[in-house]
Predict the structure.
Amino acid sequence: MTWLRLNWPQVLQLVGDHLALSLPAILLSILIAVPIGYLAVRLRWLGKPLLLTATLLYAIPALPLLIIIAAVFGFSLRSPETMIAALTIYGVALLVRTAADGFDAVDGFVRDSAIALGHSPLVIFFKVDLPLAVPVLISGIRVVAVSTVSLVTIGALIGVSGLGFFLTDGFQRGILGEVVTGLLASVALAGLLDALVFAGGRAMTPWVRVVDSQPKLGVAK
Amino acid sequence: MIEFETVSKTYPDKTTAVASFSLVVPSHRIVVLVGSSGSGKTTLLRMVNRMVEPTAGRVLIDGEDVRDRNSVTLRRSIGYVMQQGGLLPHRNIAENVATVPMLNGVSRRQARAQALDLLERVGLDKSLWRRFPSQLSGGQQQRVGVARALAADPNILLMDEPFGAVDPIVRRELQDELLRLQTELGKTIVFVTHDINEAFRLADEVVVLREQAIVAQQGTAAEIMAAPANDFVRNFIGTEAADRVLSTQQVNGKTLAVDSYGRPVGLLQ
């Protein structure tokens, strides 16, 4: 606690850095994984190879991935861009399958009736498939959010600033308070993001929670 | 008027859903396609709004080939009611009913007002508008489905076993309601069912289908009941079944209709 009291400006600074790495990665993961998951469901022949590729991406060890990204995209190895790209790849790998499951779970009757009413394919995606997949998507995004926040700590190994710095620095200098602070701050941040995503998901899906206990009034006159 | 001109549907795996089917559905009439599962009746229905494209033949609406119409605008101009309502679970009742007008660019306020009127028209309380579909009974959901199909005031209604998932008493209410609406609205209705009694109750014209949408018999309920064309139709409508063969019995000076088991089913006047 003493350590934290003396160093809280730095803690806040690194929480900020940590967020600056994880939030873009989480958002990019969603923006990339959701359309891929949708394609995998709508184009069956493409589905299996897409999902398999996504799973394999997650199997790439972190350090080689960072080096590959730096080489392929021409980012500097120690730059935030490299870190964000790597986190995005892991996030996409985690989320694609859940996204596909979410879209797959949309009731065929509901889709058919939406088509019969004259929704164009694009409108069906935004107004029918996407909102109905939200409950499943949210569960996947929560996993991505938590996993991304904890993965950002790896950045410390290549010198990208984040809460991981407290882990490596505290460990090297033998300051237990610093290590514990880094650990707890990272866990708290993950928990906070998880709660935010959860709350956002609830706000977006009021129809899921309508209780059936109300009497079914207003019968035919 | 809807015309099916020798339409066929064969899928890539060579199964044939519809083999050379022809039919004219006159305007302002209810034509019921009745058959068991696999008779291709839903396939025929979906050819009208291009959810299924025939592999041969064509479908005309008022003389115009539906293939010359944009499929999305075509569908918005045709009402469609599905089994189990097919309501959008994430939209409230008013939004569901207002779906097509909103897609057509009608303002939210106007579409909402219209939706409330339509709810009354199909016998629902306006106050239901804020509910989600899961908060309504099956029969109420079907009424909302009908209101939604009517929202853009289409000339044609396609109804795909719309009352199949509700209990017999509610089904009867919904059938009566449809007939009442039809006397007011005079839509051209193609109605698909596997329930011959429903077909007889609703139809101006009944088309009995066998597998691959081969027409076993076509005519009014009375014509089919009086002279089934063949054994298939006889079996399907159950003319030999005990509850179809009625006789009369005098009880206390009244004439009762009784079935073959001797159970009274009605009163003759």
